């Protein structure tokens, strides 16, 4: 099990709005660069499989780095992540040491309450694997239940995109719910520092 499963969104817009969203590029590529450097193989999956849209804001130079671009411009990422991601229903979670939920506003629509994401996460967690998320990707874990039917993140220390950051981003009335609020409702110990700064728990 020297593989990690990276979960991506298929959602390209804010609900019924025409405004574009999708995967936040660096929240996939930064992680992939680190785990590949550590010797792990990476597979990419999404709810439906196939194409993964990119949030156009995440392509701005301010959010890019040489490390981001090296992964983004690679044939492997372009093909296996952005064009033909695996449908999660066809993934065997027993093959993976960890599962990682990427961010971007698109995930707010297709990560929560997905039985296939939940089954994969539960299997990886129960076999001693790592369950990880970044930013809005936390919503992939918020509504999940453990083997006893309790919220998976209840009582656990987590972080993610905050309500303050949602307001400052101007997306308060465009998202279906607030990530931080939902995490706290699920019983998680949610923490964060200054808005839009690096913070890991």
From TrEMBL:
Keywords assigned by UniProt, alphabetized: Lyase, Stress response
SUPFAM superfamilies xrefs: Class I glutamine amidotransferase-like
Family that this chain belongs to: Belongs to the peptidase C56 family. HSP31-like subfamily.
Keyword Lyase applies: yes
GO cellular component, one term: cytoplasm
Taxonomy, superkingdom: Bacteria
GO BP annotations listed: methylglyoxal catabolic process to D-lactate via S-lactoyl-glutathione
Listed transmembrane segments: none
Lipid metabolism in keyword set: no
A molecular function (GO) term: glyoxalase III activity
Pfam families reported in the protein's UniProt record: DJ-1_PfpI
Cited Gene3D superfamilies: 3.40.50.880
DJ-1/PfpI domain boundaries: 27-168
Protein name as it appears in the record: Thij pfpi family protein
């Amino acid at each position: 099990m020297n593989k990690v499963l990276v979960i991506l969104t298929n959602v390209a817009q804010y609900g019924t709005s025409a405004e574009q969203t999708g995967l936040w590029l660096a929240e996939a590529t930064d992680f992939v660069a680190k785990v590949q450097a550590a010797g792990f193989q990476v597979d990419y999956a999404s709810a439906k499989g196939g194409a993964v849209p990119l949030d156009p804001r995440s392509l701005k130079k301010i959010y890019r780095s040489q490390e981001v671009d090296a992964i983004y411009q690679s044939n492997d990422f372009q093909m296996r992540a952005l064009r033909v991601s695996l449908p999660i229903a066809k993934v065997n979670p027993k093959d993976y040491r960890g599962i990682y939920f990427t961010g971007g506003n698109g995930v707010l629509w297709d990560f929560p309450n997905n039985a296939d994401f939940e089954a994969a996460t539960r299997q990886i967690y129960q076999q001693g694997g790592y369950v990880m998320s970044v930013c809005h990707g936390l919503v992939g874990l918020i509504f999940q239940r453990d083997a006893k039917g309790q919220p998976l993140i209840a009582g656990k220390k987590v972080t993610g995109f905050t309500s303050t950051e949602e307001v400052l981003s101007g997306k308060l009335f465009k998202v279906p719910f607030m990530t931080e609020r939902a995490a706290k409702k699920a019983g998680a110990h949610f923490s964060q520092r200054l808005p839009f700064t690096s913070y890991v728990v």
